[in-house]
Write a structure and sequence with these properties.
The protein is an alpha/beta fold and about 160 residues long. It has one domain: Beta-carbonic Anhydrase, Chain A (3-Layer(aba) Sandwich). It has five helices and five strands, in the order αβαβαβααββ. It has a five-stranded mixed beta sheet with strand order 2-1-3-4-5, covered by helices on one side. A hairpin with a 6-residue loop joins strand 4 and strand 5. The radius of gyration is 17 Å and the shape is globular.
Length: about 160
């Protein structure tokens, strides 16, 4: 990792980029390593905030989105779930059991697992829309990314 970073840094030229993303876009998606959101969405360096977590769940992203909007000016949100997600079709209890088996305390908070990609995408748009932490005057769109084809399908949207 450090060797690769040295090569990257040798040709790194951030230019005049600011902390505010150029496209004023925040993207919430899963941490799955098969997804390169910058390439998949045609973004360039500095275009968007990319907020990743297990399952790409809105409940875990609200704090980051609030900061992105209030302090850094994002004005649009894309929520992206994906096919073959490890958080789909598994129960929170199964995750807790595995963490316990490995000798750690999983606590009692939710892991936000789900069964239907379309339902969870619509649910996350609704979670966004019921939160007082984030802006309600911005467009929010939900998508499913197919890890086999690289294609996005729009599932839910809510105007600003």
């Amino acid at each position: 990792m450090l060797v690769a970073n040295r090569k990257y840094a040798a040709s790194f030229h951030p230019g005049q980029l600011r902390a505010q993303p150029r496209k004023r876009l925040a993207v919430v998606l899963c941490m799955d390593a098969r997804i390169d959101p910058v390439a998949a969405l045609g973004l360039a360096y500095g275009d968007a905030h990319i907020i990743r977590n297990a399952g790409g769940r809105m409940a875990d992203a609200l704090r980051s989105l609030a900061v992105s909007q209030a302090m850094l000016g994002t004005e649009e949100v894309a929520i992206i779930h994906h096919t073959l997600c490890g958080m789909a079709g598994i129960a929170d209890d199964a995750i807790r059991a595995e963490i316990r088996r490995q000798g750690r305390d999983p606590g009692d908070g939710p892991f936000h697992t789900f069964s239907s990609l379309e339902d969870v995408t619509r649910e996350d748009v609704a979670i966004y829309r019921t939160s007082s932490l984030v802006r309600q005057d911005v467009p929010v769109r939900g998508f499913v990314f197919d890890v086999a084809t690289g294609l996005l399908t729009e599932v839910g949207a809510s105007g600003g």
